[in-house]
Write a structure and sequence with these properties.
The chain has 182 residues and is mainly alpha-helical. 47% of the residues lie in helices and 7% in strands. A hairpin with a 6-residue loop joins strand 2 and strand 3 (58-62). Helix 2 packs across helix 6 (125-137). The radius of gyration is 19 Å and the shape is globular.
Length: 182
């Protein structure tokens, strides 16, 4: 999905790629993406401020290079002229911030363009689950994963840590076969 969107140099393609890169890297919620603000990015310190939707907590995230580059390309070559202070703007007039519904539609469209058919959920939340599983596979402690996702309670993180079938197969121990009694 990132590769497909990354090949689209249209203003909408630049925006979509920046959004998808942000979703994949940070595992943010839809509302957190659409509320990212221009004044929340510190280009000198390479940080980005995020207000987490459910907890209300604020996080200062490192502006990871692929995200920073994609956002900068969008801001320089794709973002329409507007007084709106949110980072991501609708692709059609009026030029105002992207909505959560618009973000959901964008992700659905880009999944279809890439030929990706996810099982279950199909919106931006898929990236959140994928980010949690990638961190788990990298042996990241659950508490850290919860922090990345902006959770206050460790119990909130558990649903995100459903292991993929391949992970379960990797940890299954062979069980000795018992001989049948006669």
């Amino acid at each position: 999905m990132l590769e497909t969107a990354g090949r689209d140099d249209s203003p909408m393609g630049l925006r979509d790629h920046a959004i998808l890169q942000t979703l994949a890297t940070y595992g943010l919620r839809s509302g957190e993406i659409v509320r990212l603000r221009l004044d929340g990015i510190d280009w000198r310190e390479d940080t980005q401020n995020v207000r987490h939707s459910k907890s209300g907590m604020r996080s200062q995230l490192p502006l990871i290079e692929p995200v920073g580059e994609a956002v900068l390309r969008y801001l320089q070559r794709g973002r329409p002229e507007t007084d709106a202070r949110c980072v991501f703007i609708r692709s059609r007039a009026p030029s105002r911030g992207l909505s959560v519904v618009g973000l959901y539609d964008l992700v659905q469209r880009r999944l279809a363009d890439a030929g990706v058919v996810p099982g279950g959920k199909r919106g931006p939340h898929v990236s959140r689950h994928a980010r949690a599983v990638r961190l788990l596979r990298a042996s990241t402690p659950r508490k850290v994963i919860g922090g990345v996702l902006g959770h206050r309670s460790p119990a909130s993180t558990v649903p995100y840590l459903k292991l993929a079938v391949e992970d379960l197969r990797a940890v299954v121990l062979e069980r000795p076969v018992r001989e049948a009694r006669s």
